[in-house]
Amino acid sequence: MPNWVFNSLVVSGEKSELDKMVAQLNQPFVKHFPEHKFENGEIVWVADEQHYDNPVFAFWNIVKPTDLEAYYGEEIHKKTNLEPEDFMAEFVRSMREDNDWYHWNCRNWGTKWDVAVDNKSDYSDTRMEITDDGSVMYHFNTAWSPVGEVLIKLSEQYPTLEFDYEYEEEQGWGGKCTFLGGEDVACDEYDIPMSHADYKDRDQECVCEYGDPENGYEDCPVDTTKFKWDSELEEWVELSDLSDTLVSTTNLQGE
Q1: 179 shares a domain with 57
Q2: Beta partners for 167?
Q3: Do 219 and 180 belong to one domain?
Q4: Which of 21, 37, 53, 81 has the fewest CB atoms nearer than 10 Å to its CB?
């Protein structure tokens, strides 16, 4: 499983343009990835279709491949058993040139999977809502990376709309960007938080504020009458646990 990046996109501007964009992103479509089945102990590829009657938000509806034969049919990894010195060169070449679904998606969308809702999805992480001021907000999760590439392309298609994009990977790194007319007009990135102060600088809640100070940081405002910072474990230890350990050690020495 990939590390997930949690994304939110707020689009603001004239209602007529917003309505047009919403309709475009939710345009129904069909994909044609073949399905593999086992017959007589062998893998057999058979034609199949994936229907998206209400995709909500689809990268496919922003930019899609033109060479569908390569997109659906080409092998993802054309060269195997490469020497270490050749691996990176082949990786760079394939990302730049190959048109199979994986490399094309990463190159044009910034991630390997679309976030569109297919007809078989009972519970989707992709959703849309209208904010109090009439803006359109989307929430969606992407594999491994943010998707500024495809959102810039969307902003090119709607140059009068403002796109405010926020993302955060599950380890804690992330960023905020504003796209306007196909340009990144403002962007701020941040690293994985390493302290309570890091969370406060981002106006976010630290883990210690969820009632679990043991997993907090040394600078967390922890009640030191109940917890003590253990520099070796790099965590807060409840004083009662330390007392139990001391009693147990004393008993062993007495034996």
Answers
A1: yes
A2: 7, 175
A3: no
A4: 81
Q: What are 30's strand-pairing partners? A: 51
**Rounded CA separation 80/91 (Å):** 11
Specify the pTM.
Answer: 0.80
Are the C-beta atoms of 206 and 218 separated by less than 8 Å? no
Give the C-alpha separation, 221 to 111, whole Å. 38
pLDDT in tens, 13-57: 999 999 999 999 999 999 998 876 667 677 666 778 999 999 999
What are the structure tokens assigned to 236, written together? 């807060």
Residue 122 lies in a domain: yes
CA distances from 209 to 83, 191, 235 (A): 49, 20, 15
According to DSSP, residue 132 is labeled: T
How many whole angstroms separate alpha carbon 178 and alpha carbon 55? 24
Q: Indicate if the alpha-carbon torsion angle 131, 136, 142, 146 is positive or negative.
A: negative
What is the number of domains present in the chain? 2
User: Based on the domain organization, do 169 and 222 belong to the same domain?
Assistant: no
pLDDT in tens, 204-241: 888 888 877 788 899 999 998 999 999 998 899 998 75
Domain span holding position 238: 209-254
In-domain check, residue 201 = no
**Per-residue tokens: 103:** 């490399």
- CA distances 180 to 18, 26, 137, 139, 161, Å, are 14, 21, 16, 19, 7
